[in-house]
Amino acid sequence: QSALTQPASVSGSPGQSITISCTGTSSDVGGYNYVSWYQQYPGKAPKLMIFEVSNRPSGVSNRFSGSKSGNTASLTISGLQTEDEADYYCTSYTSSSTVVFGGGTKLTVL
Amino acid sequence: EVQVLESGGGWVQPGGSLRLSCAASGFTFTNYVMSWVRQAPGKGLEWVSAISGSGGSTYYADSVKGRFTISRDNSKNTLYLQMNSLRAEDTAVYYCAKGHRTNLNWFDPWGQGTLVTVSS
């Protein structure tokens, strides 16, 4: 199972919006609404930010939103804040009854 | 508070074995899928394995199939990962995570991780 494709890095200024893409295939991202997104600070455990494509867990800021079109899912962070600087990973359920992660995207807030 | 806490990591020689444990609290353990996810030093996250709430269904990444065995003891609220025939490329922080009630959907929360080092 190949990893989902994410940009290695994205950057933005405080207050701006950024979008991180996550591209898979019809056997994973395109075939199921089981895409989730995680935020990870260096040396820390990942934290769930979005589940089932576009749902936010309780406590996650509404500045974070998710969507999907075809085989590509996206995470958008609006009103960028310095605390958003972290690594972001997408995941998807697959037709092989496994889970595949994206390679991760490092977000830099300039 | 929902919590999961890993233990059992350490140093092992190539070809050796290690068993990781994950103690869960704050939720009805038997009702949820549990997973292991690992992260090699400086690398991204990699899903390793998952097990259904009853323990009757198990799932593995191709990279560990036939070498790792996931199990759970619902009477002890504990998840395990038995790792055999370990290789250098298995070196990673291993995270335990609570999942969805019935499918391999999401992971929340995660434990703090336990480091496994495979080296001679």
Radius of gyration of chain A: 13 Å
Q: Which shape of chain A, going by the Cα principal axes?
A: globular
* Average predicted local confidence, pLDDT of chain A: 97
What kind of oligomer do you see? Answer: heterodimer
Tell me, what's the shape of chain B?
globular
Count all strands of chain A and give the number. Answer: 9
Structure, described:
The complex is a heterodimer of chains A (110) and B (120). Chain A is mostly beta strands. Chain A has no helices and nine strands. Chain A has strands at residues 9-12, 18-23, 35-40, 47-50, 64-69, 72-77, 86-93, 99-101, 105-109. Chain A is globular and about 40 Å long. The mean pLDDT of chain A is 97. Chain B is mainly beta and 120 residues long. In chain B, 0% of the residues lie in helices and 47% in strands. The model of chain B has no long low-confidence stretch (mean pLDDT 97). Chains A and B meet through β3, β7 and β8 of A and β5 of B.
Please tag this protein with its features.
heterodimer, A: mainly beta, six-stranded mixed sheet, three-stranded antiparallel sheet, B: 120 residues, mainly beta, four-stranded antiparallel sheet
Helix/strand layout:
The complex is a heterodimer of chains A (110) and B (120).
Chain A (H helix, E strand, L loop, with lengths): L8 E4 L5 E6 L11 E6 L6 E4 L13 E6 L2 E6 L8 E8 L5 E3 L3 E5 L1
Parallel strand pairs in A: 1-9
Antiparallel strand pairs in A: 2-6, 3-4, 3-7, 5-6, 7-8, 7-9
Chain B lengths: L2 E5 L2 E3 L5 E8 L8 E6 L5 E7 L6 E3 L7 E6 L4 E6 L8 E7 L15 E5 L2
Parallel strand pairs in B: 2-10
Antiparallel strand pairs in B: 1-3, 3-8, 4-5, 4-9, 5-6, 7-8, 9-10
